[in-house]
Design brief:
The chain has 494 residues and is α/β, with parallel strands linked by helices. It folds into 3 domains: 2-51, no CATH class; 67-312 and 435-491, Aldolase class I (TIM Barrel, Alpha-Beta Barrel), CATH 3.20.20; 355-430, no CATH class. It contains 17 helices and 17 strands. The strands form 2 sheets. Strands 5, 6, 7, 8, 9, 10, 11, 12, 13, 14, 15, 16 and 17 form a 13-stranded mixed sheet that branches. A 4-stranded antiparallel sheet has the order 1-2-3-4. Helix 3 (156-165) packs parallel to helix 5 (184-193) and helix 13 (382-395) packs antiparallel against helix 14 (411-420). The chain starts with a strand and ends in a 10-residue tail after the last helix.
């Protein structure tokens, strides 16, 4: 059964081609045909029931008021962002270098095999930051420095300071942790400069995944990096790259590790490997992990303490930002990413027991209260605002089942403070008492879907002023962008 028509890419030549997403024997697949390289058929989502459940959270965005490129060649070739893009930037990315102190075969940036240096200058990065902040209706609030390995730059601390100076409220770096482990003072310097989060690559709790995927046992390095961050109070999100047959048996162990280190670890963002480049077709299907696969792994490996039903698409939280926007009278950062791009849940820990947020909050009713309040404010204007806020402060706690809620956290008080008083202190308290368990399923040329591209909220800023969605950057544009701004390797300054 055909679910929809879309556009995709030929995995061989990267030519945009027509495609269709269809359901077959309980799975959702994508098929397409390239005039030169023939037909391709690949898994889109491994479970059609979970796919259709996510459809309930199809949240359309409004795009940018100030797009930067014109739609000339057609999506995804006009990335810039163009007027056809339907979401604004929630998280901006800047690759500050393609240099790295590791040579990982599964790196989507393919930094180890580049024969050139891509490393924007300090001033170029400043302009890239400003370009993200010029987005309208909502300036980009969060930035991640990536690469390559961003900590190999001698000025990485200054770049963190720069992001703060340019108005970013959340700054993070994506790192392998090697420099953080070997240079303990770096964590303190980054924390003092304004870094919020270390996005730490973390593939497992044993040495085997690292030896296979990274070429050496990096687990002691990871543990030391975590300890050095702990000493200075620098929060960490663990980022496992999931590969079937490599570390998919450690999903539960990684979550338990995060729980054991909840004082410094704020979440785990699992990222199933994406297959950039000329990957053999049989290896793609052999190693592919989709979001339903991830959810099933979590359920099985936590003994159902976290179930598949505890997860919601990232787009599900839109009612929160819409409600706040109605109260504040101005646009807010809104997760209008495609409903099939990511999934997440929050968990609380009580006496070693995992309590997902869905077990004690009626999430659907919670969102309904917010949506109703937003509609009433929009219809009634200022006169309705005070009434809606007062009623919401009463109605929202009613979505809470106190008998199932963790006793160590006053969820009712936190909810009331966030939505009645708009207390960011309360919001911080919430995050410091929970773990975010999430999965972002980035696309590659095999499962590429234009519909998802147009709703992307994670974007790369480039030196030429363009802002490019994550999956088009890594599937299509990366090599051309880096070569265009490249310098000979002998100009590299370590």
């Amino acid at each position: 059964m055909v679910i929809k028509k879309t556009r995709s890419l030929c995995p061989e030549c990267l030519r945009p081609v027509d495609a269709e997403v269809f359901e077959d024997e309980g799975r959702v697949l994508i098929r397409k045909e390239c005039p030169e390289h023939g037909k391709f058929e690949n898994v889109y989502w491994s479970n059609s029931k979970v796919y259709h459940k996510a459809e309930d959270f199809d949240e359309e965005g409004e795009g940018l008021l100030n797009p930067q490129t014109d739609p000339l060649k057609g999506c995804p070739l006009d990335c810039g962002l163009c007027p056809e893009h339907e979401s604004h930037t929630v998280l901006g990315l800047i690759d500050v270098t393609n240099r790295c102190n590791l040579k990982c075969p599964i790196c989507f940036a393919n930094a180890a095999v580049s024969n050139y240096l891509y490393e924007p200058t300090y001033e170029e990065i400043r302009e890239m930051l400003r370009n993200l902040r010029r987005n309208r209706p909502v300036p980009t609030p969060a930035i991640q420095y990536a690469g390559g390995e961003p900590t190999v730059r001698k000025d990485i601390v200054d770049l963190v300071k720069l992001a703060r100076e340019e108005g970013f409220t959340h700054v993070q770096i994506a790192t392998n942790g090697v420099r953080l482990a070997r240079k303990p003072e770096l964590a303190a310097e980054l924390r003092e400069a304004g870094l919020n989060t270390v996005y730490l690559q973390f593939d497992g709790v044993t040495e085997e995944p690292y030896i296979t995927s990274r070429g050496k046992n990096l687990l002691p390095i990871k543990l030391q990096a975590i300890e050095n961050c702990r000493k200075v109070g620098l929060g960490i999100v663990l980022v496992p790259t999931l590969v079937r047959g490599l570390n998919d048996n450690q999903v539960g162990d990684i979550i338990r590790f995060a729980i054991d280190n909840i004082d410094i670890i704020r979440g785990v963002n699992f990222q199933p490997v994406s297959f950039a480049g000329r990957t053999p077709a049989d290896r793609v299907e052999e190693q592919r992990i989709t979001i339903p696969d991830f959810q099933k792994l979590v359920e099985a490996q936590t003994g159902s303490e976290i179930s598949m039903d505890d997860f919601y698409p990232a787009s599900s939280v839109r009612p929160i930002s819409d409600f706040v926007a109605a109260i504040e009278g101005e646009p807010q950062v809104t997760f209008t990413c495609h409903q099939h791009c990511g999934t997440a849940t929050y968990i609380f820990i009580e006496d070693g027991k995992i309590i997902p947020i869905t077990r004690f909050i009626d999430v659907d009713r919670f969102f309904e209260v917010l949506e109703k309040g937003k509609d009433e404010i929009e219809e009634g204007g200022i006169a309705a605002k005070a009434k809606v806020i007062a009623r919401s402060a009463i109605e929202l706690p009613k979505t809470l089942d106190k008998s199932e809620a963790p006793e160590s956290v006053d969820i009712k008080r936190i909810i009331t403070s966030i939505f009645k008083e708009r207390s960011y202190t309360a919001l911080g308290e919430f995050h410091y008492n929970t773990l975010l368990i999430s999965c972002m399923h980035f696309m590659d040329p095999w499962n590429f879907d234009i519909d998802r591209v147009r709703r992307c909220v994670i974007h790369y800023a480039l030196p030429d002023g363009r802002i490019v969605p994550f999956c088009t950057m890594n599937s299509i544009h990366r090599a051309d962008v880096e070569r265009h701004f490249a310098k000979p390797l002998n100009e590299s300054k370590d």
